[in-house]
Amino acid sequence: MDLSFNIGGAAGQGINTIGDLVAQVFVKNGLYTFTIKDYMSRVRGGYNFTQIRVSDEHVHAPVHSVDVIIALTKDAIVNQRERLIEGGVIIFDESLDFEECERCHLPLPLEETAEEVGGDVRMMNAAALGALLSVLKMPVSLAENALADIFGDKGDSVVEGNVKVARTMFEEVKGELAQRCDHDFSSVENAPSKDRLLVTGNQAIALGAMAANLKWISAYPMSPSTSLFEFIIQNAQRLQIGGLQTEDEIAGLNMALGASHTGARSMVTTSGGGFSLMVEAVGLAGMAEIPIVIYNAQRPGPSTGLPTRTEQGDLLFMLHSSQGEFPRIMIGPKDPLEAYYLTKNAFRLADKFQVPVMLLGDQHLAEFSMNIPRIEIEEISMERGKLAESSDDSYKRFKITEDGVSPRAFPGDEGMVVAASGNTHNEFGHISEDPDNRNAMVEKRLAKIPRILDELEEPKVYGDEKADYTLLTWGSTWGAAYEAMQRLSQDGVSINHLHFAYLYPLKTKRLNRIWNEAKKIISVEQNATSQFAKLIRMESGLSVDEEINKYDGRPMTPEWIIKELREVGVR
Amino acid sequence: MIEREDLESPQDIQWCPGCGNFGILRALKQAVMELGYPKHEFFLVSGIGQSGKTPHFINLNGFHTLHGRAIPVATGAHVANTDLKVIVHGGDGDLLGEGLGHLMHAARRNVNVTCLLHNNGVYGLTKGQYSPTSPHGFVSKTSPPPTGVPMDPVNTIGVALIGGATFVARGFAGDINQLTQLIVDAIEHPGFALVEIMQPCVIFNPKWGWDFFRERVYKLEDDYDIKSRTAALEKSFEFGDRIPTGVFYKHEKTHFAQELQLPEGSLRDHTNDREEIQDIIDEMLV
Question: What domains appear along chain B, each with residue ranges and CATH number?
Fold first, then answer.
């Protein structure tokens, strides 16, 4: 079973609610889901859709072809129809002016039922859900349970109303209408998935930060990073995490640096344009050796670009952000579960090496949701790295050490005087223009890089270690590339997939090995200039053979990658 | 008790002879000694400019940050450890140019930090360009000749009042006793305290020399009402032949860290509750 639903309409019509409802119903039934939200940068109107993919096996990406369209506006049918499979279902309100109906296209009284049976037009969601289950020949009890869960806190009458609406629509479609359609999932009663945690990338990163003992967050709202910031703020009182929506991104990062320097594990969230404003303070973190986690949910630029869409266009910008030279760590999670663990590690690495750590997400990772196993918080990560022990007056915040890391003390520690500066400074943190000191300090900071490399994981190889073709990816494009690789392998193509979560500093051992073994390396990136391939060439001298790029702001699908691969001769 | 020798400059002071900053440093040291808090509880955060070097010339916790950004850094430091007495040092260019927005918002938030604004009406470190407080017509390297600065200066006291600062004062680097007392009161004030300090730059703004201020500064009268913000605002426009000094406005209300209901003391010592996070996760289970 591998079904995809496309639920479309105008902003403000409750597309997300139906989407969440449908996803929850299937997750409860033991299926794996993958949901993306495709929306315009406007508050009301326009055309938005949610795509939900449902399967009894793991799914990792959106797909091009659609099995079922649920349409609340005519646009939702017109815009998606060419993606609908032959014999696909369209469920839409009978008031829509759409007459070119085929066998399984169902004009239904969704709105009327919501109003007359439930007494509330907003119950159209439940009506659509009832119709959907009926068409798929799945039991209506699935909707009943889900509605009880979702609307439980709104009171019994809301739950009952929704359930009544869903059941009415279910009965109306059952029989003649449902028989017109070929789908039959009556057997999918107890599907295999036990993964009941339905999360987005942003939520998972927030949870990772909480488990890493985040104590301060300051940010300026910017799509698509905002939901992470909001999630933490909404839970800030429970965990006693401090947070502030600042006047701008400049204040956001500088405030977080002040908090971190004083001992609170801190982060900022933003998107590329906001990061542009933070760049000066990135250098301050580099010079004053302050741990910080900077999350950039990338979106297509330059400038304000496409505010609600996705891209991986900020990699080289972040790599080179700020004047001067200093170590930094860059990490790009592939999916929510990995994002949770990588975020925890980001905080650990920031403290251990006293450097800025950049988490590169994007709109796709930030907002797609999937069900993953329940995350169990085993412990709160408190590994703070090297801390100063002695308390005499001669504390050196920037003591020269072999590994470049100086023992940390915090302003407020008794017996210590902690001095720091964004100017080149001596071991005590005081300004120094002495050339020998300058050299020693530059070298001290850069000495961290080999130690950082020791701590980072090698990239992963999916599929056979040896193959003719290797797909090269980083971050959130993993899912579509992985599925493309799987499908091609099943078709007999000799192909594997080399994927990087740790982007910089760059691990090169496995990279070199794969380069030696593959006949053709093909980079797949959600940008126009293959930035990660450039980074690899810069760091290792190795070049990819082909570059596949998507920069229309929409996430990749496996079908799209396969089509592009065919075009570059992959057989 | 902190003795003067405990505060000895960790390195040679690099200000020009005759700089107003010497007076400010003396008053700061005096205030720190008078306050009686343990040395490790003081934390100076500075921006860029000659004022920004202050943390290097006194043996206290200090962080010399970016141009205009000392206030956000100080805000973060204060929330991370509410035991700290956080003191910002910035110049007129630093806090009223690059950092004006941050100053206004910190005032509005009533962050419990003390902001000492070194005002010499000119850019010293970059060698003689006009600053946000340079008077209309001030001739400098970057003002259009021959008319000089083509706009009016920022009214520092007024800006702080409108921003919402709960302690607003002005001192003069040539009156150490008064300045010391103002700094003590500002640090003791539980909220955002701004002290504008008139401070001659004898090299690049010789017109605002020591005598210029000595002839003009006067202390606000005993019957001046420091509780009235409108009176203070009116007074803030008096800046010419006579320059008032002293506390313009003082008002106590909840400060920012209290509003946030953060844990007392240092966030560094606080651990997120594991069970709570597990509950947050479990509430998301479908």
Answer: 4-260 (3.40.50.970)
